[in-house]
User: Fold these one by one.
Assistant:
Number 1:
Amino acid sequence: MLCLPDLDRPIGGVKQLHRHVEHLVALGWDAAILTDAPGFRPSWFKSDAPSLSLPESHARGELDPDQCVLLLPETYVDADLANFRGLDLSGLARVVFNQNAYYSYGQIGEHTSAALASTYDNPALLQVLSVSEDTHNFLVRNLGLPDSRLSRIVNAIEPIFSPAAVKADRMHWMPRKNHDHVQAVMQGLRRCGASHSAGWQGEPLVQLTHVQVAERLNAARLFLAFGHPEGFGLPIAEAMAAGCWVVGYSGGGGSELFRFGASTCVSFGDWPGFLVAIQQALQLFAEQPRDTELRLQRQALAVQSLYSVEQERASIQVAWDRIAEAFQQWRCSFL
């Protein structure tokens, strides 16, 4: 699985690639993360996924078209596989792991149509993996891919996200995406205030490990989602599993998460609506604490169950059984 360049900062898709490899190894596949530098591993989460640098993999003969399937992120739509880091990978069968459909076009320009055709219409493409209902619909409606070429992967919410026994009146958010939207909403809260906000505190989640993020969310009551566009909305799901009421943008990919009864979806860019939704959540915590707590508990259980590690592994097994069958057919036709 190509996971290049080597970046040591929180990127959800990178973590999910590592989890994908971990599951494949557990299912009996010979799988590895391909990096730039030998031994590179992101430091913000733990993973025992095998890894090799791309040069190491080439030197060991791992990139054999007769045995190797290359998994590509959707952002590689513009990549020249005939000369990738000095190697010709164009003869390999491949799978696209599309974790954010809204990045599928790359840098849109005069070469976009050709790049999409080269990626998604290539006979060497065995399957496209999607991570949400929204991504699946995008791939069908916007890229014209048949359902038979798509496999849905369930993104697991890790067990470290679980409501603490005692929660504080605290809200969190991640300012990495749409920072101007974050500032606009924060300015609105400062200038206009909100009833029932006495005693509440707010803190952005920045420069934290994955475990530290879980600890913060587990002890909080409210999460503000500013991510857009999103392929799935992993921070939303993690906050829900941690027992937080979620207010904010679905990002598209997170739409399926706003159905469990303890969240408020806000249209992208609707800053007044964002403030209203925060106010309504604070009011629920103040005036209907027991019912609100029950709704949060049920939402957490639903998310933990539907997006469990077991569900993720089962979805990966189904997808790669299809890929294995398609690979054998491709070998017979093209090798």
Number 2:
Amino acid sequence: MPKILLINPNASEATTAMMADIAQRAAPAQWQILPRTAGKGPPMIVNAAELAQAALEVEDCWRDAPSDCAGTIISAFGDPGLERLRALSRMPVVGIAEASMLEAASGGRRFGVATVTPDLVEPIAGRVAAIGLTHLYTGIRLTEGDPRALSGDAPALEAALAQAVQRCVDEDGAQAVIIGGGPLGQAAIALAERLHLPVIAPIPAAVRRLAQLMG
């Protein structure tokens, strides 16, 4: 039974449990998801400084994990520590931003991101550029208000993200929309199921990407 390390760079055990449940449901039956949570930092990463600090926590989590893991998922949308872990690990490492962007852009689709964190707009655009998908990127649409407060209100979060998704499509011409955030995982699943639009939930996308890399 392959062990798959899932690292939550957000310092919230509750969020980690949610992410691990989503990943396990999306994973092949024989996979065992091993969740790990950042030892310090905010419960939800909302700016570039927190994202940079999270990269150090990601490496610590990876070093403390069992050595027989067959792959790793970094479950924060800025993919903190991704390049570092790829340099260290003999096994595949995927980030939820990269995985969901590759899936959203498949077949040459134009894609956007709906999210709650205005201070991460530039880092997200940076991930798009690093992957080489800027020519297909239609930009970000944001919800209003404090991202941490909104994320604590599931119905309001889902409604606000649904509006942002619609704007990505109607105003920006996106053909697929990613829900941009690991802590938004449950809302992403709900929207992918109920909206008649191509909504990409990033945690399942990362599971699918890792499965491809593992063969």
